Amino acid sequence: MRGHGTPRGAVLVGFMGAGKSSVGKEVARRLGAEFVDVDDRIEADTGKRIPEIFSSEGEQAFRERERKAIRDAVSVPGRVIATGGGAFLDAENRRRLKAYAPVIFLDVSPAGALTRLAGDTSRPLLSGEDREKAVAELMARRRPAYSEADFRVDTENLPPDRVAGKVLHLLARGTKGGPSGERAGKERRGG
Ligand code: S3P
User: Fold this and answer.
1) If you measure from the C-alpha of residue 38 to the centroid of ligand 1, how many angstroms do you get, rounded to a whole number?
2) Is 39 in the pocket of ligand 1 (CB under 6 A)?
3) Whose CA is nearest to atom 10 of ligand 1?
């Protein structure tokens, strides 16, 4: 429970290119909260860029570092935490993040993600030849996990500050009057 006067945090999850870092920074600024980008923490801890971690240590080692960075991130209340696109697929991370603060799934279409990530070389999972196929497959596989977030925000064609406004609106409504707004799971009924 987040009682009166307790700092309000939030967690942003979603696919690469959904805008988690830029939206998270803006949400934190407007809440007066500390912003933590999990990928940035991993890079700072290791002194390596993410593609380098993937190539020298492998994805499993990266995921272990990610779990640790998330454990560290949730050790201080009231933060706005932006996760990497694969973090919420891990059951332990999901449990920790959901226990920490409302989790918001920033949704982007495959086409939207491809547009936003055009020319980007910092995502090792999209470094293969057929980026379109990789995005479509990964996104389809990941959607069930993202749907376990508390809220979903459609980011299509919206700049980060507009998405941040939607997130803040959901946070305000969700913490006062009980859950409301766009629920992450599509098939919720009557409950
Ligand atoms: C990943 C997303 C990246 C980064 C790593 C793996 C993923 O973060 O954590 O490249 O599995 O989707 P962003 O979502 O910030 O790009």
Assistant:
1) 10
2) yes
3) 123
Extract the runs of DSSP E, i.e. beta strands, from 49-140.
80-82, 103-107
- Give tens-digit pLDDT for 12-25: 999 999 999 999 99
Tell me the pTM: 0.91
Residues 6+ apart with CB under 8 A from 110: 132, 135, 136, 139
CA distances from 92 to 100, 144, 149 (A): 12, 16, 14
Ligand 1 pocket check for 86: Cβ under 6 Å:
yes
Q: What CATH superfamily classification does 16-173 receive? A: P-loop containing nucleotide triphosphate hydrolases (3.40.50.300)
Ligand 1 atom nearest to CA at 138: 12
* Rounded CA separation 175/40 (Å): 28
